[in-house]
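Re-run requested by the PI after the first attempt was lost when the workstation crashed. Everything re-entered from the original request form. Ligand of interest: zinc ion.
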Amino acid sequence: MDNDARDSAASENVVTTTALYPPERITRVREAVGRAGLDAVVLTPGPDLRYVTGYDAHLSERLTCLVVPAQDEAFLVTPRLELAVAEASPAGGLGLEITSWQETEDPFALVAARLAGAARVAVADHMWAAMAFRLRDALPGAALTAAGGVLRELRMRKSGAEIEALRQAGAAIDRVHRIVPQLLKAGRTEAEVGRDIAEAILAEGHVSVDFTIVGSGPNGASPHHELSDRVIGRGEPVVVDIGGTMPSGYCSDSTRVYSVGQPPQDFLDYYAVLRDAQEAAVEAVRPGVTPEAVDAAARDVIAAAGYGEYFLHRTGHGIGLETHEHPYIVEGNTEPLAEGMAFSIEPGIYPGAHGARIEDIVVCTGTGADRMNLTPRDLVVIDG
Ligand code: ZN
Ligand code: ZN
Ligand code: ZN
């Protein structure tokens, strides 16, 4: 970390766990369970459980779950050997009942006994299918559905603390992008560069590296290409799309394009179009506008310039405790944007010999878009 980066890291406000995961959230969730016409939701470890309690529980074959009944107090079920971990987690500070089960007990029977008579129960989208089937067998009278829709509305509208956490994640990945020019050199492989970037993602404050895409030359035209042993050549554009998870639980995701030496003219031609398209989509963001209109704002610019067939994917995805979550910025999504929604704006053009994508995370404010990623969006030409 250089001095500037250290200063900016130190000056960031600390978002407290209580601010991020407020105790009253469980009440909001219980209300949502009732509104959805459900008797209860059962949340195993994953983003929903963390959203409701702050508990970053690990997913294993031993059942851990938060049960939120519509008409009763919520309770957390944990294996006995993880009781201390659960109590020490933010969930332990919520005044929540924590019930533990011994190795020889059947935790599904325990949950079922507490939910006797329930007719409609939703389980976390991330619950293992094997567990969902065991719960179904333990609750033969209940119809089981996926709980994603119940928490969707709540999770989509970020609180001030969540936006601050996303801003810190954005600043952290921006610091990584600022050192990428030192790592990219003709003669190095994508994998070598990717390893250095992964190290930097951790050094700049993330607790995990979620993905490192280094797409040089033709690999840049494959949007989800990650890393390969391809040697980066002179005059080649390189798409660098990177992200990780912060200690807060919130994710970063940003793409910039670099060129090792001067890139070909046909690349520069469409990169200028892409730059305008990304800008147009960011400018289209405001409450009441549909995600499909934001998608069209980017797509129209690209199509008008004759590159429409090379824009292979939607314009963006929501982001928060997951890198990909609602709202999706895609044709067909007509649910209007609202203040607090956070998502990527990442149009791309992929003709084949090379490709490009520019990606920022933005938050919808009362009047427009607030960018979480602030590094320059111009092509970075490296003298490497
Ligand atoms: Zn993607
Ligand atoms: Zn990305
Ligand atoms: Zn993305």
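Saved to the shared folder this time. The chain has two domains: 23-154, 159-382.
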